[in-house]
Amino acid sequence: MLARQLAAANIDYTMADNAFIRIDDWDRAQQLADRLSPDVLHRVLDHYAKQCCPVLDVFGQTYHWSLMQIECSTDLAFRSEATMLPLYQAISREAIVSVKAEHVMHFLGKKMSPQLMQEVESRLSTRIEGTCIKHRLGKNSVKMYDKFGRVLRIETTTNDVSFFKHHRKVEHRDGHASRELAAVKKSIYSLIDLREILLGCNRRYLEFLSALDDFSAGTRSLDKLTTAKQIDGHRVKGFNFFDKTEHSLLCSLQRPEFNISGVRRADLKPYLPHLSASSITRYLKRLRDFGLIKKVVGTYRYYLTRIGRNAIAAACKLSEHVIIPALAV
After folding, report:
1. Could you give the CA distance from residue 161 to residue 167 in angstroms, rounded to a whole number?
2. Alpha carbon of residue 167 to chain centroid
3. Are 148 and 263 in the same domain?
4. Residue 295 domain-assigned (yes or no)
5. Judging by beta carbons within 10 Å of its beta carbon (0-12, 13-18, 19+), is residue 109 exposed, middle or buried?
6. Which pLDDT score, from 0 to 100, does residue 25 have?
7. Alpha-carbon distance 88 to 313, whole Å?
8. What per-residue confidence (pLDDT) applies to 26?
9. What one-character-per-residue DSSP string does 7-65 give?
10. Which pLDDT tens digit goes with each residue over 264-277?
11. Do 93 and 160 fall into the same domain?
12. What is the pLDDT of residue 213?
């Protein structure tokens, strides 16, 4: 459909299978793609239903169109295979090793809890089109694969849209209605909200991959993390990632649930039981002094900054994949 719209708008493009590897005006193409609405889709489906099942005119009925499976992809188009292939080979190896169950939950906007009893798995497969890495949680998945060496596609797929929740109008059995957090309806009119939800899943996965790939930025951030600095005339020592306490603190800050809702001192206490509340407060102040966390105005919640994510990811990766295996030999 987008190809026909691009042709009508005199925008030249090149396709490979169902992927665009070149478009003269990417911004305009995105605007055209965003114009697809449930109302338009409803009219198209009704048109084909009337052709295939004209008996409905006799009963004077209409169709209710629902969703069984939906996919939302984010395509990153590269100028050449020489640029994309080395990059994809590197991040695909990192992703299959580094992504854990809690990360998959985070990508799909969920938290680890006993109530969410679903199987989580990650797997790598090679297909004719390219190499695919798929992270699955029940009937939902986030996957990454290359298309003809020119397009890197991040795709979130669900076979049960009610897995996701959003704020909407809820009609109760007693007749009253309220607006609250509830499961997404399976109607095609949920597509507008689902688009934002699934694009959020793609974005979180891309953010995770970007931290794995940007080694130089992580190294610079790690240097800032470990080197002492002067603040208001006082010397503040850097963080020693090989110190047991500080290692536990930094790894705790990287937990997926804290990326979603932020972290408080009380949230860190279960992961640092040997530290007093005042000690955790002092550590949080050091982290703020180094610019690794930022405070939400008017609250006691903190989020990792970009430099904090990069530095901690680099240090965790160095310890887990290089130093510890080397010492175990």
Report:
1. 14
2. 20
3. no
4. yes
5. middle
6. 94
7. 19
8. 93
9. HHTT--EEEETTEEEEES-HHHHHHHHHT--HHHHHHHHHHHHHHH-TTHHHHT-----
10. 888 998 888 888 88
11. yes
12. 53
Q: How far apart are CA 315 and CA 251, in angstroms?
A: 9
Q: Which residues pair with 169 in a beta bridge?
A: 179
288-308 burial code (b ≥16 CB/10 A, e <16): eebbbbbeeeeeebbbbbebb
Contact 68, 188 (CB under 8 A): no
Spell out a b/e string for 186-222, using b for 16 or more CB atoms within 10 Å of the CB, else e. Answer: bebbbbebbeebbebbbebbbebbebbeeeebbeebb
- CA dist., res. 284 & res. 264, Å (int): 9
Range of the domain at 193: 66-213
Residue at token pair 């010397």: 235
SS3 of residue 169 by DSSP: strand
Q: HEC string of 223-270?
A: HHHHCCEEECCEEECCCCCCCHHHHHHHHHHCCHHHHHHCECHHHHHH
**DSSP calls for 89-114:** HHHHHHHHHH--HHHHHHHTT----T
Angle at 215 between CA 212 and CA 221, to 5 degrees: 105
Q: Quick one: 27 exposed, middle or buried, by C-beta within 10 A (0-12, 13-18, 19+)?
A: exposed
In a shared domain, residues 190 and 236: no
Residue ranges for the chain with pLDDT beneath 70: 114-117, 127-130, 213-222, 329
Q: Is 198 part of any domain?
A: yes
Residues 196 and 278 in one domain: no
